[in-house]
Amino acid sequence: MIECVTGKASDFAVSENHGWTIDEFISFLDKKPGAEYIIESYTKEAFIFKMIEYYFTDRETGGVKFDREAFLKILEVSERFPVAEPCFEGGIYFDEWFNFRSGAREGNPLLLYAILCGGGFRDPMTMEVALFGETVIFKGFPSASGTGTQFHTPARFAISEKSERKDGAWEFIKFSMGHHPSLSWENIYIPVKIERIEEMLDETLGNPLMVDRESPYYEMLGGLGGKPFIRIPIGNNTPELNKKIMDVIMSTTVVVPSDPVVRSIIKEEIGAYLAGQKTPDQVADIIENRVGIYLKELE
User: Fold this and answer.
1) How many CB atoms lie within 10 A of CB 297?
2) Contact between residue 217 and residue 98 where contact means Cβ atoms under 8 Å apart
3) Cα–Cα distance between 41 and 72 in angstroms, integer?
């Protein structure tokens, strides 16, 4: 699957690609002051932890690193995020959650979190028609390289060089990655074959997805604060939107790697910053030292 954020296309230059660096993200926020929520309901803490995935792995070598300058910028930007998630009276319910997201029409939140996967190829239509109310653009989370959207691949396969049954192992991988109506892999992830992706996108041009009570798929806007509900039919995907989805898939070339030790170190030490017990520089010093020791142990 591909993890990304979506926003109004009118907020971005037409020539912009699917990626941005932390500096470009800051520039975007500077042009949009006043938004209470930036990326859906992401809090200060959630934003920091998400950025850990994108900044502290060396994409070229596959190793790990700690970029002090990037880390300090992430902490700086995190100050623009709310400390706590929005509170819904009585808990978070489906309708309330989607009504919160519908604030994207007015620019609060500025961006919505999105996952592109086989079972979610209709979601971008919901974004355009109901939530933003206009054409959207897909952007990856800010990253050091600015390469944009990235693949999350929870399921991975490898064949041992010493295996005596490489042919059999390869047949198993091909079977697992193939199209099987009885299996749900491709609904959770993105099929590996372009032909199957195209077939699934073509299916979104047909009848709208049916959900409970056999109603056409639509979002509910309003509702919170005593506002009346408004039902907006979503309808089918358009060829133009499906082309945009395919462009995102084909332009995504990076897999999000993650070193659990580096993540653990940063998460352990970031607590002192969030609690106001240490400054960004003090936390950066500790993390830099601990990651340095860890990397030397790997040599």
Assistant:
1) 8
2) no
3) 22
pTM to 2 decimals? 0.77
Is residue 220 within 8 A of residue 95, CB to CB? The reply is yes
Domain with residues 2-152+201-298, CATH architecture:
3-Layer(aba) Sandwich (3.40)
Residue partners of 220: CB distance under 8 A and separation at least 6: 95, 98, 99, 102, 229, 230, 231
Distance, CA of 181 to CA of 8 (rounded, Å): 35
Q: What would the pLDDT profile of 30-78 be if each residue is shown by its tens digit? A: 988 888 889 988 888 888 888 876 666 554 554 556 677 888 888 889 9
Check: CB of residue 69 under 8 Å from CB of residue 8. Answer: no
Alpha-carbon distances, residue 296 vs 172, 263, 269, 286, 299 (angstroms): 38, 17, 20, 16, 5
* Contact in structure between 140 and 152 (CB atoms under 8 Å): no
Residue with tokens 């999105």: 114
Run of H or E including 219: strand 218-221
Strand 254-255 relative to strand 150-151, pairing: parallel
Q: Token pair 């009885």 is at which residue?
A: 182
Q: Under 8 Å CB-to-CB from 74, ≥6 apart: which residues?
A: 22, 47, 48, 51, 55
Query: Within 10 A of 78 (CB to CB), how many other CB atoms are there?
Result: 22
Domains of the chain: which residue ranges?
2-152+201-298, 156-185
User: Using CA atoms, how far apart are residues 288 and 265, in angstroms rounded to an integer?
Assistant: 10
Helix, strand, coil: what percent of the chain each, to 5?
45, 10, 40
